[in-house]
Amino acid sequence: MESIISTWQLSFLFGVFTWIVASSMFNVTHKVRSFVQPWVSRRVISGTPTILQIQKYQHGFWDAFFSGLSCVVSVPFYTGFLPLLFWSGHGKLARQMTLLMAFCDYTGNCIKDVVSAPRPKSPPVRILTATKDEKENALEYGLPSSHTLNTICLSGYLLHYIFSCHENINASYQVAAFTFACLFVGLIGLGRIYLGMHSLIDIFGGLVLGLMILAFWLQVHEYVDNFVILGKNVTSFWIALSFLSLFAYPTPQHPTPSFEFHTAFTGVTLGIVTGVQQTYHQFHHENVPRVFTHNLGLPAFAGRTLIGIPTILLVKFCSKALAKWILPITASALGIPVRSSGYVTALTGPLGVKKSNEVKQSGGYLQKMFFNRQESFDVDTGIRLLQYAGLAWSVVDLVPSLFSQFDL
């Protein structure tokens, strides 16, 4: 059985590698962009009057309401929410939502940077960025809306999970829950337009792509989960897949933070998969205590939170510091020239930043590695990957071990 699974894994990885090489050689990203970008850009421009019409209702209350709503469905929120979901005893839901969000993040950001479509022009559109996270989001391209995409996928999967666990739930409650989810998605989409962050085509693209991803995920999620918890060679396979996904990412027309977001969540999934695969029968099986039961009351869950959050933040800091020390030394020993965009002071500087921007705007990532004579590689990518992998591993391995020591 193991040899069959190994053959499947190698075939899958080879297929991904082949696609990366072929798409780089034939410059697929540039060709798709030249065809799609003008069409999307015209829709963004033609949608400006609609945005201005909605922004006529500008008010301090709506500014605060939609800004707060955007924070609730942002990546930092999910990054804080998902650990609590693991520690509450709902391991399967937490695993699936983490993997689904990583898939949404990768797919959505790939499309953003392939199309490289502009956001609404300001002025005349008013763009409101109330938080640091929103300011970073504004630096990305527009199509599709990540907030809309993530919201429809994660709320849709949450409904599926609840209905599956409670098959006898009253039909009226099901209708109410579905209606609330639709209203929530609608408010997110409206809020992104009101804040000037997206045009109608971006919201529509996020909605359609979200429904497609959700439909696909509902077909494969059981297979994916069984592979993560019971499969063979899971860790080695996921490391190879994570590495390939970094080079599979398309190069945008101009540098954006999207690749950094993708790298961070790739690290998160790597840490989660590795940790769960090793400790499933200890901490993450279906019979673990769940919050609000007599085995895991609210005080015990509060204790888990007070221990867990500082621990994972400490691990994140230590992982970053360790990676900043090890990766440059390893690269030097292997004769690989590296630079840093900001993490390693000794490898930064005006010249290094200039080279970094020049490299990011040429060819595909894999093409740059194998087909171009690249002068150096950005070590920050590896540091970011290991940093978030360490954080995620601590969520599902180190912290649950501490819980058992403290009888939580």
Automatic annotation (TrEMBL):
Main location: endoplasmic reticulum
One annotated GO biological process: phospholipid dephosphorylation
Domain Phosphatidic acid phosphatase type 2/haloperoxidase: 94-218
Keyword annotations: Endoplasmic reticulum, Hydrolase, Membrane, Oxidoreductase, Peroxidase, Transmembrane, Transmembrane helix
InterPro entries referenced in this protein's UniProt entry, alphabetically: PAP2/HPO (IPR000326), PAP2/HPO_sf (IPR036938)
GO molecular function: peroxidase activity; phosphatidate phosphatase activity; sphingosine-1-phosphate phosphatase activity
Membrane topology note: Multi-pass membrane protein
Keyword Transmembrane helix in annotation: yes
Transmembrane parts of this sequence: 12-29, 64-87, 175-194, 200-218, 230-249
EC number(s) reported in the record: 3.1.3.4
PANTHER family on file: DIHYDROSPHINGOSINE 1-PHOSPHATE PHOSPHATASE LCB3-RELATED, SPHINGOSINE-1-PHOSPHATE PHOSPHOHYDROLASE
Similarity comment text for this entry: Belongs to the type 2 lipid phosphate phosphatase family.
Protein name: Phosphatidate phosphatase
